[in-house]
Amino acid sequence: MLAVMNTSIRFDKRDLILAKGSAVMTRRGYHGTGVQEIVQAAGIPKGSFYHYFASKEDFALQALEFVYQPRLQRYAEALGNPELSPRARILAYYRELQAHFLRQEKAEYHCFIGSLSFEMSELLPAIGAQVEAIQQASVDILQRCLEQARQAGELHAEEDCANLASFIANAWQGVLARLKVGRSTQALDAFITRLELLLQP
Questions:
Q1: Of 13, 15, 82, 116, whose CA is between 20 and 30 Å from 67?
Q2: What does the pLDDT look like over 177-195, one tens digit per residue?
Q3: Closest C-alpha to 154, from 89, 97, 83
């Protein structure tokens, strides 16, 4: 029982460091965040950081998985909702995101994966590979839903679902970049309008 309890405590503290540290790194960037800033945010001694992470790079790799695996799971659940048609699932998901940003007093988006990919993908190939794997997993989830839409007659029978999924995912990344820079929902509104037109038979 003691071993089980100690394991639970260890993972709780690791998750705390990942949650607080990834939030700091999202705001300040990889180079702007040191181990000291991470442990201060988590409220732990600096020595504890190296009990869980071999380096700042190791922390970033683990943080990417910690942040994005639950998001990928929610995305898969939303696009697999049997109560909606495949086309309706996709539109409902992105309309909900649109509503989320519209509820903000100032539309803004701080993207952990975006910050790391722009700053570190070339300098640290392991981070670049992790970012690409996460983004591809998202595209794969969308592609499966698009294929179901095609089978249901909601898309043209000759539609290239792999290409369409990549296009939508890349366009969405562009929207997030515009939200971060411009703090306007104009790009988001245009994305939703075009998405509705794309997802037609």
A1: 82
A2: 888 777 678 888 999 999 9
A3: 89
